[in-house]
Hints:
Distance between the termini: 39 Å
Number of domains: 2
Oligomer: single chain
Strand content: under 5%
Order of helices and strands: HHEEHHHHEEHHHHHHEEHHH
Amino acid sequence: MDLAALLPALIPSWSSVVLLGTFFAYLAAAGSILPGKVVPGAALPDGSRLRYRCNGLVSLLLLVALLGLGAWMDFLRPTIIAERGLELLSTTFIFSTLVTLVLYAAGCNSGSNSSSLKPHLAGNLIQDLWFGIQLNPQFIGIDLKFFFVRAGMMGWLLINLSVLARSVPDGNLSLSMVLYQLFCVLYILDYFVHEEYMTSTWDIIAERLGFMLVFGDLVWIPFTFSIQGWWLSRNNVELTTIAAIANCFVFLIGYMVFRGANKQKHVFKRNPKALIWGHPPKVVGGKLLASGYWGIARHCNYLGDLLLALSFSLPCGLRSPVPYFYPIYLLILLIWRERRDEARCAEKYREIWAEYRRLVPWRIFPYIY
């Protein structure tokens, strides 16, 4: 698309505002009303625990069913998101910026001393806006951090499905598109099946809510993770049978490592004596798990995430770097995050962390890094 066509397409419209507002309104209502397992979050520094209603899978399936019914009744076009992708991108970006400013203002005016709402001001405006100043801000009883990541994951699936709907009449429904869509659907559905594991991730328990997470959840996840789908809708890629099988193998290995590592960590935090791979867990200092995947690399869940990201791009072939934006970006991000994690853990656990590093020397890639 040339620049003359790109700039007008980025201008938000009232239609995009309505679409985004309706999406958020649905998620707020569904998240509060639909049944789901209520999971206690990790213990905060003041000893309190937030409680999360993990009904994301039910909310997602109901939303897709409602959209399918609306398309069947000609109430809406299934391609509407694909047709308005750029203006939805700019609308969501503006919304993320406004949310960040509101969060900063609300945090500065907060008089709460709880771990969730106590403001943590660094004194640098840019840093405070980027990282946020409150750990778990809420709006009408909704935990915004948990809400935004749920919205991003669902938005990613809706964009993909809309791109798929547009590819069918265009005649671009290739094996490459089918594999990409299948991998993403399985990954997203699995995320919501195991949504309670999200409550023990670093983002939820340690990161404050600022522009980094708001933008990352609402804009970056849905609009950049779907680049491969957009690219395949405009480029025909014919995969060989061997390439398709290899692609599936990368996805399965990535999924096994990603889900297995996260599950082991989640179960260990709930029950430190639970068996891992049939054996009692090896624990350093009574706190750090050094068994299973966590005995192979200190951040082995990142390795699984990177393999999954690569599997989403491999259906696009090798003739363009554009579809590989996501795994390349993720590699840079996770190395940066791993460095931050290491610094925080070294400060928090001190000699225990030093012992864990001696026991598990590899950071992400065993025998490489």
